[in-house]
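Worked problem 6 (solution included).
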Amino acid sequence: MTDPVGDLLNLLDIERLELDLFRGQSPDERASQRVFGGQVIAQSLVAAYRTVPEDRLCHSLHAYFIRPGDPKVPIIYQVDHARDGGSFTTRRVVAVQHGKQIFNMAASFQTNEDSWEHQHDMPDVPGPEGLKSLRERRVEIVDALPEAMRDEFTRERDIEIREVEPLDLLRPEPSSDRHHVWFRVSRPVDVSPALHHCLLAYASDMNLLSSCYRPHGITWLQHNKLMSASLDHAMWLHGPIQFDEWHLYSMDSPFAGKGRGFNRGQIFNQSGQLVASVAQEGLVRRLQPKP
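Solution. The predicted structure is:
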């Protein structure tokens, strides 16, 4: 029996080579030519967390994707101790393959502190109960895809996703950039608050870039029309989370142009607490038809 969540936890259990040097692997079975961006974000955050006192949680990270990751070779993560202060700790993580940077990230960690509080309300959207899972929607259309894609397209996932305003993946129509998904780790996990942050960081790279596709009636399946990739990723973590429970990802895209799309997200737990905010710019390059 497959256990995608167990595989994900193993993926995030990176190997320590030296005090501030770590090695991460990529999944063996994925039919992909590049490493999923969320994997590199999460493994980098794990590496940073392993050099930070346990009483400090990450409150923000800012990252750049520099080169495509090669899933066939390990990724080396180098952690720099930028600052160790009384309340805040800062780390810089560089991910290297084939002797070159593929990714870098700055992350800041803070001790717990009381202060004034406010937040925006969670959008009023249908709950996850009764919504089809992304896998169920994929199974419905899998016969329209090339046979070589079908197993990967419909496999069990480590993150369960239920879209509130799904598009037709094969024949999308232009729609609002504002959309919402419910998501969570696919089964309960007994892990630390730090690792729950890393799991959320992993999943935060899912669906966000599609916000800037929606007004133009395109999806990632339309390889003949679109070249896309994440360029950067910023995340603000507003407190501890429990990511094996449902969370709402509310997303929009205020701008697209010059071959780039800018996307924003707010992540709420099911009680309505805003637990994270996300921003990302991605490459959204229109491909010209071949003569």
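Discussion: Helices lie at 4-12, 37-49, 134-141, 147-154, 193-203.
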